[in-house]
Amino acid sequence: MVSPLSLSFFTFFLFLFLSHHQAQAQSDPQSPTNDPPTVCIIGSGISGSSVAHFLRLYSSSSSSNSNPFSIHIFERNGVVGGRMAMVNVSGQTFEAGASILHPKNYYAVNYTQLLGLKNKDPPSDSFSLGIWDGQKFVFKTHSFSSNIPFVDKIVSLANPLLMFVRYGFSILKMQTFVEGTVNNFLKYYERFESRPVFETVDEMLKWAGLYNLTTRTLQEELIDVGLSPLLIKELVTIQQNYFFGT
What we know:
Blueprint: H1 4-27, E1 38-42, H2 46-62, E2 70-74, E3 86-89, E4 92-95, H3 106-114, E5 130-132, E6 137-140, H4 149-167, H5 170-185, H6 201-208, H7 218-225, H8 229-236, E7 243-245
């Protein structure tokens, strides 16, 4: 599955590169003006389809030329979407693509609106968490349903308290780390006028403060953040046959 982060990096990098190239071509009096450039995209999965969509959308809205370049997509299968498809296994139908979207993945959220898809929000009282070490549950939250709102409120407050007792202030540090990383990523959603033109992916990552995350392991990063070894082992890195359930 292509991650939203990789998809956005690829989409923005390709578009900014083409925009920069187009601006240079227009400023060069010797460059040909009759033949628009051709963009070839290999594969019509979520990445290829998104690149084609946003290239056409942004180029049409930012250029007086309604057709600044042509787009050719090469796909070996008869349908678009790649691994984001419905598959049938032993008579059962499964969704092979991404089924859970982060609310700040704005492109994916906008796609659901563009395609007329409906979001299915899980019930707020159905959340439960269990950590399995291969032999037993080392930690479980309480799951209890009652017709009395006061009882449900107590249970909803008890689960965060249990997690705090086990992991301490590392829970808050993890939340701060995640929010900071997401906010850095959201810089790519800013208007093009407020962003420089990136020549390389490294430049784009450094501009948003995400470069260090690509040069080291997650465990190394979280140790520097100050998370406890227990939290890193059980709740983040998902190593040594640990299992999460909701």
